[in-house]
Design goal:
heterodimer, A: 418 residues, mainly alpha, Arc Repressor Mutant, subunit A, Methane Monooxygenase Hydroxylase, Chain G, domain 1, 3 domains, 3-stranded antiparallel β-sheet, two-stranded antiparallel ribbon, 11 helices, 62% helix, 11% strand, B: 218 residues, alpha+beta, 2 domains, 7 strands, 14% strand
Chain lengths: 418, 218
């Protein structure tokens, strides 16, 4: 900050280019005042630290004077340019014409061409890039500000829109300035192409030429894309701005309502088993959805005789029969389970307590399998869990059953009148 | 003698021969057709014949409406049910309910579309993550998307949410509401037809003040 401040003072003529120790101390005091005199900064130490790179002390008449190094001046220039961009409509093309212009003397031999590349092209490249970066940031900032227009209660919207229109007009002019600059590069490009043969005589010169040519081409194709994108953004925003006036009020209210709906949905929705469930005030609505299905596409080859007999898939009748029987048995088991559950529940109504172990044996014997008594058991547990007047009591006393390999705990179901 | 007059003369036009079948199939599949990408041809056909028989064709033969709608002057077309009937699309498998998740995402995208009034309407995964994890309503988003609100989520949880978003975007792409630019990077553009969600829920949007107030009271 101190170096930038000193640089700015020399530029503004407030102090001489070779300034005195007193000028230095005054500026340092200004900076410390601005920073509210932090205790961590010691004047002597600071001055010693920055003297290594940023300034030199030289004898001047009977005294000593200080001047900033060229490195410090360049640095300050970059910082100031970034903080206070002064883009003028034609500034870039003028810089460009001065720095990028390729004269015949630059093309005399490969060394002069390389000199032009190192000293003119690279400088112009940095200038163009910095212009574009600043312009891009400028547009982003303005577009962010534009969003405010869609918020409700904007004061003087008409005036505000007109102000933005002026800003975007200015931005558009800058883009045109850069586009003109880009056009100018075509002339330079043609000159570079024109000397290809001249620099192809030796491998060494061709390599240098080729490197320069590629760098030039790559840089400008990249810049072309960036400029077009900037231009599109400006055009879109300007177009929208012009259309906005008529509908601004309606748009603001509508946007606010959508935002509120989104907030309402977020606040009232629930997350259940991995799914989002909206509040019941947000009804689910239908959209047309006619699914086009092609079940089978007939393949008809008229070149060969077609007997119209469809090709049937290979089938194993025994396997199909087994599957059929299996399904029938499954259905039968489900039916029997329901019947037995009814029976047990009816008995429970009259007898109040039952020992399910006895019933287990009875069902297993009648059905000839264990699946039905087990399913009945699970069914009863579920019924009891959902009932206020039925209760299951499990005693961990092993009960023998008719099946050798099966032992049950004693399970008693109680029924109370509620 | 039969009358030679045909009310659907547009069917014998060159444009209809080329595009009617495609337009008809995708419209019935719920697609919204706008002047964008490969739908441009279908859009030109619909725009040309909408008032010259096409609208009546759907109303009279299918008892459904072919709607010409617009969002910020961008026109789009879609099929919609009449107020009291689903017409010939009323049978099973000819319509589909928009589930809760899709409604929420559609309203989110509509809100972003409106917010980006002055810009292009592209969004990337980073933008969505900012909404889910950094916005004012992050606690709601995180609870709804991940099931719980916590500081960090496992890679599996993150992948799960990302896949869910991609699936929803793919469904929206089929509807013509978004265009996916790069699937894995979740880079997409919101299209003007996203406005349809506001038409579907216009009554709720209009009454949001009442809903909101009732909710605050309880």
């Amino acid at each position: 900050m101190l170096v930038v401040w000193l640089y700015q003072k020399t530029q503004d003529g407030l102090i001489e280019h070779e300034f005195t120790k007193r000028d230095f101390d005054d500026t340092l005091d200004d900076v410390l005042d601005l920073l509210e005199n932090p205790k961590s900064i010691q004047k002597e130490l600071l001055s010693r630290k920055i003297s290594n790179y940023y300034y030199r002390t030289i004898p001047y008449k009977n005294e000593y004077r200080i001047h900033l190094t060229i490195f410090a001046e360049n640095l300050c220039e970059i910082v100031i340019k970034q903080l206070q961009p002064q883009i003028k409509r034609l500034a870039l093309i003028h810089t460009f014409k001065r720095t990028l212009a390729l004269m015949d003397t630059d093309l005399e031999n490969i060394d002069t061409f390389k000199f032009w590349y190192d000293n003119n092209f690279i400088a112009a490249k940095n200038d163009i890039l910095s212009h574009i970066e600043i312009l891009q940031k400028n547009i982003e900032d303005r577009i962010n500000e534009l969003r405010q227009l869609l918020k409700p209660n904007v004061e003087n919207p008409k005036e505000l829109i007109n102000r933005f229109l002026d800003i975007f007009d200015a931005l558009e002019k800058q883009t045109i300035g850069i586009l003109n600059t880009i056009d100018f590069k075509d002339e330079t490009w043609q000159k570079i192409q024109g000397v290809k043969e001249r620099f192809s005589e030796t491998e060494e010169s061709f390599e240098i030429y080729d490197h320069i040519q590629r760098a030039f081409e790559n840089f400008f194709s990249n810049i072309d894309r960036r400029i077009l994108s900037i231009n599109e953004r400006i055009q879109l925003a300007s177009k929208r701005l012009r259309n906005l006036l008529d509908t601004l009020k309606h748009k603001q209210q509508y946007k606010v309502k959508i935002e509120r709906l989104l907030q309402y949905m977020l606040k009232t929705a629930k997350h259940e088993q991995g799914q989002i469930i909206l509040d019941q005030n947000i009804p689910l609505r239908d959209l047309p959805y006619l699914q086009t299905r092609f079940q089978a596409v007939p393949h008809i080859d008229f070149q060969v005789e077609n007997d119209d007999t469809p090709t049937l898939p290979d089938q194993d009748p025994e396997h199909a029969e087994r599957e059929r029987q299996k399904n029938l048995q499954m259905l039968k088991n489900q039916e029997q389970t329901a019947i037995w559950m009814n029976k047990v529940e009816r008995v429970l109504e009259t007898e109040k307590d039952i020992d399910y172990t006895e019933w287990f044996d009875k069902i297993a014997k009648a059905e000839g399998n264990l699946e039905v008594p087990i399913k009945v058991c699970f069914g009863l547990i579920e019924t009891c869990n959902n009932s206020d007047d039925k209760r299951i009591e499990l005693q961990q006393i092993p009960q023998k059953t008719r099946h050798k390999n099966l032992t049950l705990w004693k399970m008693i179901i109680h029924h109370t009148d509620s | 003698m039969e009358n030679d007059y045909t009310p659907y003369g547009f069917l014998s036009s060159d444009l209809a021969r080329k595009h009617f079948a495609d337009a008809d199939i995708v419209l019935k599949q719920g697609r919204h057709i706008q002047d964008y990408g490969s739908d441009h041809r279908l859009f030109v056909f619909l725009d040309e014949y909408y008032d010259r028989g096409l609208k009546d064709y759907y109303l009279e033969l299918f008892k459904i409406r072919l709607v010409r709608d617009s969002s910020d002057r961008n026109v789009f077309y879609y099929l919609d049910f009449l107020e009291d009937s689903r017409g010939k699309l009323g049978k099973d498998n000819r319509y589909r309910e928009l589930d809760s998740e899709k409604i929420l995402f559609a309203i989110l995208l509509l809100n972003s579309y409106k917010e980006k009034f002055f810009e292009d309407k592209q969004l990337k995964w980073n933008d969505l993550e900012m909404i889910f994890k950094e916005s004012e309503h992050k606690q709601y988003w995180l609870t709804l998307l991940y099931g719980k609100h916590k500081k960090n989520y496992t890679p599996n949880e993150e992948d799960g949410v990302k896949s869910k978003v991609i699936r929803t975007l793919q469904a929206f792409q089929r509807l013509g509401w978004v265009h996916i630019i790069e699937r894995d990077a979740v880079h997409f553009e919101i299209l003007p037809a996203i406005e349809r969600i506001s038409r579907l829920y216009s009554d709720v949007i209009e009454n949001i003040d009442v809903l909101d107030t009732t909710f605050e009271l309880f």
